[in-house]
Write a structure and sequence with these properties.
This protein is α/β, with parallel strands linked by helices. The protein is 35% helix and 22% strand. The chain is built from 15 helices and 21 strands. An eight-stranded mixed sheet has the order 12-11-8-13-16-17-19-20, sandwiched between helices. A five-stranded parallel sheet has the order 2-1-3-4-5, sandwiched between helices. It has a two-stranded antiparallel ribbon with strand order 6-7. Bound molecules: cytidine-5'-monophosphate. Cytidine-5'-monophosphate binds next to helix 13 and strand 16.
Length: 408
C-alpha cells in the first residue's frame, strides 16, 4: 500500500480519547504517523499510548531541549506530507485561524507547507458560535479541509453537530485528499444494489445483491478525484466519502435516475442487479389469504404475472451519440461464464463487461471478495484473481482509464 507521512495533531477535547483508534486506522491504511499533542490533550490521552501506536516519540513541548534534540519542530513540519488535526477544538481552530505559534502543535502548523485536514469536535454552542464560523471560513479560504463534525449525542450532554467524525470516516476523507487525481474533472455515475419490485403493499421481488461492488467502485472513483453520483437500490452500506448518493427502489426509478445523471457523465458503471421482470399488476394493499372464500382457493397456487423491465444498460449504450461516454456493464452468471459474458457484451453494446461466476462460494453476491473476467468488444479477456472488492474496483477503473487513454 502506498502510505503517506501523516502528522497527527491531537488537541485537547474529550474526543482525544478516539485518537489512538484513529492512529491505528491510519497505520492500517498504510500510513506512517508521527504525533504531536497540545498540553491539554495530555489530560485526555496518555502520550505513551500514541507513542507506542505510532512507533515514534510524541512531542508536546516547544521549549524542551531533549524533545527538540530528538526531532526538531521544523523537521517535523517538513517531514509531514499531510497534517491531520483530530480532534480540532474550537480553541485550536481559533489559534490556527490567527496564525498563533504559542505551543509546539500550533508552531508546527505554521511552519508546515503540507495540506491540512481538520476534524472538529466541540460543544454544539461553540460549533455554532460566530467566532468559530468565522475561523472556519478563514481556514477554508486558506485551503484547509474540514471533515465533520457528526451530529449526535455530545459528551457535554447536548445533542447536535459537534462529535468528531468516526476514525474510519476521517481515514476515508484523507484517502480522497491523498488519492491520485486521474479522474479529476470527470463525472462518474455508478449504480449499485439490487432493485426491489413491489408485489403488494408489503412484499417485493428482490435479489441478493449486497451493493458492495458498486459502493467500492463509487469510493474508488471519488478517491481518484471524480464527481461521483451513486444511484443505489436498497443496501445496508454507508455512503462512501465524497460520493453523492441517490436512493431508488425499483428498476423504473433506477432507469429515470440513470438517464438523468448519465446525460453529462463521462463514465457510467452499471453495477446494480436490476430486476429483469416486475409484477405486472402490483396490488396497492396487502394480498390477504383470508379473503379467499373456500379451502380450495386457499390451497390453490397464486399466479403472478411478470412484465419485462427495460434494459437500462442496453438503452444507455444505444442512445450514446458518440463514443465520449464510457459504459461498463456487469454480468452475474451461474454457468458457461465466458460464453454467456461474450453474448451479453455483444447484446448490450457496452465498452467493457465485468463478468463474475456466482456459483463460486468464495466470491460474488454478498461476499467481500470477487474473481471476475474483464471482456472488451475486441475480444480481449482478462481474468482477475480473487480480490477484495475495493482492490477489484481499482483494477476495473485502471482498465477503464487505460482504454479511454488509448481511445483518446
Ligand atoms: O442482462 P443482465 O441482467 O444479466 O445484465 C446485467 C447488466 O445489465 C448489469 O450491468 C445491469 O446493471 C444491467 N441491467 C440493466 N437493466 C436491466 C437489467 C440489467 O441496466 N433491466
Amino acid at each position: 500500500m502506498n502510505g503517506s507521512r501523516i502528522l497527527l495533531v491531537v488537541s485537547g477535547g474529550i474526543a482525544a480519547y478516539k485518537a489512538p483508534e484513529l492512529l491505528r486506522a491510519l497505520r492500517r491504511a498504510g500510513h506512517s504517523v508521527r504525533c504531536v499533542m497540545t498540553e491539554a490533550a495530555r489530560a485526555f490521552v496518555a502520550p505513551l499510548v500514541l507513542q507506542t501506536l505510532s512507533g515514534s516519540p510524541v512531542r508536546s513541548a516547544l521549549l524542551d531541549t531533549s524533545e527538540e534534540g530528538q526531532i526538531g519542530h521544523i523537521e517535523l513540519a517538513e517531514w509531514a506530507e499531510q497534517v491531520l488535526v483530530a480532534p480540532a477544538t474550537a480553541s485550536f481552530l481559533a489559534r490556527m485561524a490567527n496564525g498563533l505559534a504559542d505551543d509546539l502543535p500550533s508552531t508546527v502548523l505554521l511552519a508546515t507547507r503540507a495540506p491540512v485536514l481538520v476534524a472538529p469536535a466541540m460543544n454544539l454552542n461553540m460549533w455554532e458560535h460566530p467566532a468559530t464560523r468565522a475561523n472556519l471560513t478563514t481556514l477554508r479560504a486558506r485551503g484547509v479541509e474540514v471533515v465533520g463534525p457528526d451530529e449526535g449525542e455530545l459528551a457535554c450532554g447536548f445533542e447536535g453537530p459537534g462529535r468528531m467524525s468516526a476514525p474510519e470516516a476521517i481515514v476515508a476523507h484523507l484517502a480522497l485528499l491523498l488519492g491520485p487525481s486521474s479522474l479529476a474533472g470527470e463525472r462518474v455515475v455508478v449504480t449499485a444494489g439490487g432493485t426491489r419490485e413491489p408485489l403488494d403493499a408489503v412484499r417485493v421481488l428482490g435479489n441478493r445483491s449486497s451493493g458492495k461492488m458498486g459502493y467500492a467502485l463509487a469510493a474508488e472513483a471519488a478517491r481518484r478525484g471524480a464527481t461521483v453520483r451513486l444511484i443505489s437500490a436498497p443496501t445496508s452500506l454507508p455512503t462512501p466519502a465524497g460520493v453523492e448518493r441517490e436512493d431508488v427502489e425499483t428498476a423504473l426509478e433506477m432507469r429515470a435516475a440513470v438517464h438523468a445523471a448519465a446525460a453529462d457523465a463521462s463514465i457510467v458503471l452499471m453495477c446494480a442487479a436490476v430486476a429483469d421482470f416486475r409484477p405486472a399488476n402490483p396490488v396497492a394493499r396487502k394480498i390477504k389469504k383470508e379473503k379467499l372464500d373456500s379451502q380450495d382457493e386457499l390451497d390453490a397456487p397464486l399466479d403472478i404475472t411478470l412484465q419485462r423491465n427495460p434494459d437500462i444498460l442496453a438503452e444507455l449504450c444505444r442512445e450514446r451519440s458518440s463514443s465520449a461516454r464510457f459504459v461498463v456493464g456487469f454480468a452475474a452468471e451461474s454457468h458457461d461464464l465466458l460464453a454467456a459474458a461474450r453474448r451479453k457484451l455483444a447484446r448490450k453494446g457496452c465498452d467493457l463487461l465485468v463478468a463474475n461466476d456466482i456459483s463460486r462460494r468464495d466470491a460474488g453476491f454478498d461476499s467481500d471478495d470477487n474473481a471476475v473476467l474483464l471482456l472488451t468488444p475486441d475480444g480481449e479477456v482478462d481474468a482477475l484473481p480473487l480480490l477484495p472488492k475495493p482492490v477489484l474496483a481499482a483494477r476495473i477503473l485502471d482498465r477503464v482509464e487505460k482504454m479511454r487513454g488509448a481511445r483518446a
